[in-house]
């Protein structure tokens, strides 16, 4: 990792007897886009608000650009922030909103006007400078909020669920736009979201949070394909969980529904023969029927078939578990029939042991 | 026409008659100063009276300062309570309603006892001091209206998020209140201000007991000694109050609109 720009060390936050953030440690490199991902109440927004200065940590420290900002007020941190509820000032026009931070900082009128023009071009809202927030759509308001946050050239950009109030189509286009702008300006960014798709598609790294802790920190690829805990595996993406029994820990052999499956070496470290365990498998790692290159298979019965257009989601009952898998729609072959016996195959290397 | 609709109109007509008949009678009486014909003589006499001009000017100046005291006291208080202490809002609301329950005469006697010339804070020892005390008293009387107007204005905006948005962009408290909060509740503040103005212009008890040359005692004095002029003054006072109400209505159209479009 290149030079650390934001460093969060052992941060804890308690409200009375309730601890909402527990020993949070994270180093973010300059220009990196890091997402805090987790369900409601996991502490991600509280952590972001501590970085912004709206909440004071109960313990630990926060450094931005090598400077300890733990006890600084929000207006002393030189941070840009975009809020879930837009938070545009209703009494100011688009241009005045964007120029707000510049005016507060005492930037000259000429320079401020120039910066506003530059920002309007970046967010593609030229010609909207005289409009008031109520005259804009949600997506446009959020773009103005982004421009307002970026105009004073902050050292760090914080995005607090900025897309959650928008409709699905605008969310997708705006998240691409935000990522492009972030890369163009090379600004270190923390993005809070509960939407795994947003986190996976936008981030350089993701911090999956649960119960006030960082459960796993990693690239989207790692988080999705190599979840470190049962929570991460369940929270990120769709996951099939199969019940198994350890047969030979040394050779990494397990029994699933009466069949023997050999896992990656070392996958069963710390277990003993006869131990029950849970194995996880992504839907896209499974195919219906036998397929070359997939070394493991299980037998089951089609329990449900959902036609989703380009994809057909099939549920197969395997022993006491139900396994979901996706197949592409093929107009030439009819979808599977409920009640039909079938075989599913997968690579044993794709199986994850949940701890 | 439906039966219920007829009753609605009957109720409306009775209410309107209750309100308008005395008003029309007052207007009519105020025009009778000249024998045998209607004239504006009573209004001419009243408006030409130097005491009318002096007392009205005095009350207007007092009203302006009262509004300033009210705004400086109420806006930051209501804002801070919404932002940081929402739990004590009911208590503050109760306190602001007390001037409606405690008669003005009780408040002013309290003032006279507390701030008399022999007290540690001798407001009443000088005319300026008494003026200041009168303004403070009026600000207290107007508190229920001013606080409610401002609080209602604050309810229409997301105080916390706007404050945080301003803070993160470098703004301090003065900038936040002056540039973000006040402009967004300005119409509400003006509503409170005009209500305050209407109260101050006609107030009698405090001005009389503090012996200030205000419009209220002048109205009372004229009413006790003249026939037609009091009716003209009553109509003028009504016109001022209605004018204030109309300005509130007009201004409310210019209130900053909230922007809650999701898309």
From TrEMBL, chain A:
SUPFAM superfamilies: MOP-like, P-loop containing nucleoside triphosphate hydrolases. GO terms for molecular function: ATP binding; ATP hydrolysis activity; transmembrane transporter activity. Residues 6-236 form the ABC transporter domain. GO terms for cellular component: ATP-binding cassette (ABC) transporter complex. Keywords: ATP-binding, Nucleotide-binding, Transport. It comes from the Bacteria. Transmembrane segments: none annotated. InterPro entries: AAA+_ATPase, ABC_SmlMolc_Importer, ABC_transporter-like_ATP-bd, ABC_transporter-like_CS, Mo/tungstate-bd_C_term_dom, P-loop_NTPase, Transp-assoc_OB_typ2. Belongs to the ABC transporter superfamily. This is Putative spermidine/putrescine transport system ATP-binding protein.
Automatic annotation (TrEMBL), chain B:
It comes from the Bacteria. InterPro entries: MetI-like, MetI-like_sf. The keyword DNA repair does not apply. One of its GO terms (biological process) is transmembrane transport. It is found in: Cell inner membrane; Cell membrane. The chain crosses the membrane at residues 7-25, 56-79, 91-112, 132-150, 185-210, 230-251. CDD domains: TM_PBP2. Keywords: Cell inner membrane, Cell membrane, Membrane, Transmembrane, Transmembrane helix, Transport. Pfam families: BPD_transp_1. Residues 52-249 form the ABC transmembrane type-1 domain. Its main location: membrane. It is a multi-pass membrane protein. Signal peptide: none annotated. One of its GO terms (cellular component) is plasma membrane. Belongs to the binding-protein-dependent transport system permease family. This is Putative spermidine/putrescine transport system permease protein.
């Amino acid at each position: 990792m290149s030079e650390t720009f934001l460093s969060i060390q052992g941060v804890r936050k308690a409200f009375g007897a309730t601890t909402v953030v527990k020993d949070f440690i994270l180093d973010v490199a300059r220009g990196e886009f890091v997402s805090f991902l987790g369900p409601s109440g996991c502490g991600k927004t509280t952590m972001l608000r501590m970085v912004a200065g709206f909440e004071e940590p109960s313990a630990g420290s926060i450094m931005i650009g090598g400077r300890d900002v733990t006890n600084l007020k929000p207006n002393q941190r030189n941070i840009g922030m975009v809020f879930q509820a837009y938070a545009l000032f209703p009494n100011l026009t688009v241009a005045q909103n964007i120029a707000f931070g510049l005016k507060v900082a005492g930037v000259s009128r000429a320079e401020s006007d120039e910066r506003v023009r530059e920002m309007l071009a970046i967010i593609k809202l030229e010609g909207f400078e005289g409009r008031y927030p109520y005259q804009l759509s949600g997506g446009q308001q959020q773009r103005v909020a982004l421009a307002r946050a970026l105009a004073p050239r902050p050292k760090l950009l914080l995005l607090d669920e900025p897309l959650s109030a928008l409709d699905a189509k605008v969310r997708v286009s705006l998240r691409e736009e935000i990522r492009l702008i972030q890369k163009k300006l090379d600004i270190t960014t923390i993005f809070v979201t509960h939407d795994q798709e947003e986190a996976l598609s936008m981030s350089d790294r993701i911090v999956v949070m649960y119960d006030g802790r960082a459960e796993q920190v990693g690239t989207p690829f790692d988080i999705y394909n190599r979840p470190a805990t049962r929570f991460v595996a369940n929270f990120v993406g769709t996951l099939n969980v199969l019940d198994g029994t350890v047969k030979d820990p040394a050779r990494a052999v397990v029994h699933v529904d009466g069949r023997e499956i050999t896992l990656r070496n070392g996958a069963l470290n710390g277990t003993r023969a006869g131990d029950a365990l849970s194995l996880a498998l992504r839907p896209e790692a499974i195919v219906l029927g036998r397929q070359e290159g997939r070394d493991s298979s299980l037998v089951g019965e089609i329990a449900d078939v959902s036609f989703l257009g380009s994809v057909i989601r099939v549920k197969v009952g395997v022993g006491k578990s139900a396994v979901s898998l996706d197949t592409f729609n093929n107009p030439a072959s009819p979808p599977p029939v409920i009640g039909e016996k079938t075989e599913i195959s997968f690579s044993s290397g794709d199986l994850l042991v949940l701890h | 026409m439906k039966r219920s609709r007829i009753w609605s109109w009957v109720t409306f007509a009775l209410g309107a008659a209750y309100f308008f008949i005395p008003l029309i009678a007052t207007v009519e009486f105020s025009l009778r100063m000249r024998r045998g014909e209607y004239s504006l003589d009573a209004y001419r006499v009243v408006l030409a009276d130097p005491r009318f001009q002096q007392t009205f000017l005095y009350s207007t100046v007092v009203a302006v300062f009262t509004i300033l005291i009210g705004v400086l006291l109420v806006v930051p208080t209501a804002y801070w309570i919404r932002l940081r202490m929402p739990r004590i809002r009911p208590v503050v609301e109760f306190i602001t309603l007390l001037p409606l329950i405690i008669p003005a005469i009780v408040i002013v006697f309290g003032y006279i006892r507390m701030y008399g010339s022999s007290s540690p804070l001798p407001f009443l020892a000088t005319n300026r001091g008494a003026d200041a005390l009168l303004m403070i008293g009026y600000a207290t009387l107007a508190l229920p209206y001013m606080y409610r107007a401002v609080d209602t204005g604050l309810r229409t905006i997301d105080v916390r998020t706007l404050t945080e948005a301003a803070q993160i962009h470098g703004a301090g408290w003065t900038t936040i209140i002056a540039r973000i909060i006040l402009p967004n509740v300005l119409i509400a503040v003006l509503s409170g201000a005009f209500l305050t103005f209407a109260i101050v212009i006609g107030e009698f008890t405090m001005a009389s007991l503090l012996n200030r040359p205000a419009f209220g005692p002048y109205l009372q004095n004229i009413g006790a000694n003249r026939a037609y002029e009091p009716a003209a003054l009553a109509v003028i006072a009504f016109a001022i109050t209605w004018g204030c109400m109309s300005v509130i209505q007009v201004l409310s159209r210019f209130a900053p609109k909230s922007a809650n479009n999701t898309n």
